[in-house]
Design goal:
3 helices, about 20% helix
Length: about 140
């Protein structure tokens, strides 16, 4: 994993380790630390050992992620005072995973956002996300 941005943090100088424990760390980019920007306070919790997706985490890494998430929430609540949170894993390219190292998104949300009140499912339910599935007869394919 020589080129993995989450295994080799030095490859992204603007990436900061904010909190960590034995198995994982909470990272934020410099731009997410600025007040008033989109994704203010956002960051990711990543396992210290390379795991491709959340499905590859060990039980210890899952537990450590949970424990770190509690500390991350306290940190973000005190520093940014968000109104809510979206949390999530993108697993696989189709799901939006662009770095093949498991990372858990912690996204503070604010009342002043244009999309306040819109959750994770908002984009999936949008008409422009309607699937274009071709129907075919299985017997014709055989």
């Amino acid at each position: 994993m020589e080129q993995c941005l989450l295994c080799h943090l030095e490859l992204v100088p603007s990436q900061n380790v904010i909190l960590s424990n034995e198995y994982c760390m909470f990272l934020q980019l410099d731009e997410a630390r600025e007040k008033g920007v989109q994704l203010e306070g956002a960051g990711i919790i990543v396992p210290k050992i390379h795991r491709e997706t959340a499905f590859d985490l060990t039980k210890e890494e899952w537990n450590a992620t949970y424990e770190l998430l509690q500390k991350v929430k306290q940190y973000l609540d005190e520093l940014y005072e968000p109104s809510g949170y979206n949390l999530g894993w993108n697993c696989g390219e189709v799901a939006g995973q662009h770095i093949n190292h498991a990372h858990f998104h912690v996204l503070p949300r604010y009342k002043e956002e244009a999309l306040a009140g819109k959750g994770i499912r908002y984009m999936f339910k949008a008409e422009k996300n309607k699937r274009n599935v071709m129907e075919f007869n299985v017997s014709e394919e055989l």
